[in-house]
Amino acid sequence: MAALVVGHKNPDTDSVISAIAVADLMSKRGIASKPIIQGPVVPETAFVLDKFGLSAPEVVTSVAGNQVILVDHSDLAQAPADLKDAEVIAVVDHHKLGDVTTSSPLLMWVWPAGCTGTVIKAMYDFYGIEMPKNIAGGCLCAILSDTVIFKSPTTTEDDKKAVQDLAKIAGVADYQALGMEMFKVKSAVDGVPPKELVFRDYKDFDMNGKKVGIGQLEMIDISMVDGIKGQLMTELAAVKADGRHSVFLLLTDIMKEGSEMLICTDDPSVVKKAFGVDGDKSVWLPKVMSRKKDVVPKFEAAFKG
Ligand code: MG
Ligand code: MG
Ligand code: MG
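Above: inputs. Below: predicted complex with magnesium ion.
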């Protein structure tokens, strides 16, 4: 039975492409592997798959009884619910180490890079396996997406080097232009139900025993959502009512390089503690681009004290 390679819930481009790439690499190393995803692909990912002639992996949410390779996460909250009944044989990721444990030794490729795609490029090089052109194109886009075309503070020199190399393999002459084309697709919110927007790039966290949800929409111009902020707030309230202490939605403007954060909490003092600004419905946070680096650590500290 093939090992299942899976990224986090609410899959983003990195989670989808990394599952495809690691399944390719592992299979070529003699470990039959199959990419899966935990939910449907978002428009940005559909654009990337189409651009490079890749197919979307099958949506599978149960992994019990299988060998599993986790990509782009190692938190149980973001993994398939029955992961405890599976055997994790590898983790390939670029986040803080999560709470997954194993009973046998495992392969770990976890780097503090801007994207799993960067780690995967290094894996192909390490194992001396040629990366297929279409997978290189996918990884290239994953890095441009996760690093917001190098504007995110999560960007490392390794990411920039990987992009140069991957662009060559994929035959992409102007990766900046490709990145902007991709972010234009990502920015399209017209006619999308507000609930879908809230969950498009959404993660739950346990912060000092409290369940906290943080969503993010990255856009070329956040004024595009001006007309639907009220509806987004209504959705946030519904998500919060479903067993959460707080729910936040980052509206990240990649040109202005900052985020407006929509707030839904019983305790607005956590926002003041985390960011030093007052606001009970919304605040503008200059320079805040990355949920992982600019937001989660600040809230974790704020929730502690
Ligand atoms: Mg991701
Ligand atoms: Mg990622
Ligand atoms: Mg992201």
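The CA atoms of residues 156 and 269 lie 33 Å apart.
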